[in-house]
Amino acid sequence: MTLSTPVDIPPDPGPLELVRTGLARIGAMCLVELQKLRHDRSELLTRAVQPTLWLLVFGQVFTRIHAIPTGNTPYLDFLAPGILAQSALFIAIFYGIQIIWERDAGVLAKLMVTPTPRIALVTAKAFASGVRAVAQAVGVMIIAALLGVHLSLAPQRLLGMIVVLVLGSAFFCCLSITIAGLVLSRERLMGIGQAITMPLFFASNALYPVQLMPGWLQVINHINPLSYEVEALRGLLVGAPARLALDFGVLVLAAAVMISIAAALLPRLTRG
Asked: What's the pTM?
């Protein structure tokens, strides 16, 4: 009669260990995305052209004709935070294309069979889009300062700006990944992305105060995350009235919900 050797079964990791492991994997994926950004510096320069034109042309013209009342805030000061948010939106809304490219190259399938949680993969993409938005925001702020926009450079306000841009970019990046998980095609994603970017922009308070909008547009503005991003940036950078607690709360909740939805749809994109 032989005696079987007892096998040591490792204890189940506690909740704190699971959280620590999850955060470590999210951090590792974020570092991978940062490595990719080192090769895309020219793209940041080309994407800075459009926000620059908005400030140089639209902002300068409407400042001269005083067509949009903004109270005691000069129109160019009023506009600059909106253009910062717009540039972040335009970067993030097409991030789903990168996911589709990774699927076609077989990279996504390989990542999905690793122990890395899906939410870590999506969070890393969201973080990378936020880093791109912050990098581009620096260029836009320099141009705005050269045009005479009075921006607050207090460290706590700049830190708040970074957090706002990262949260806003995370939401729209994950919205793009969600759309990619539904349509499964680069062409369809590009068409939908182009169809929703400008309505999101014009249905926000980026170009004009909410009080000037018709009633139906004000309703859309109140459910548009871009509006809360613009309001927070305006309050932080130019000292305009803002409900910062509400703005940050909405952005955190919107980003968390959209990250969860995008992570849930990631396996469908892999099968597609």
From this structure: 0.87
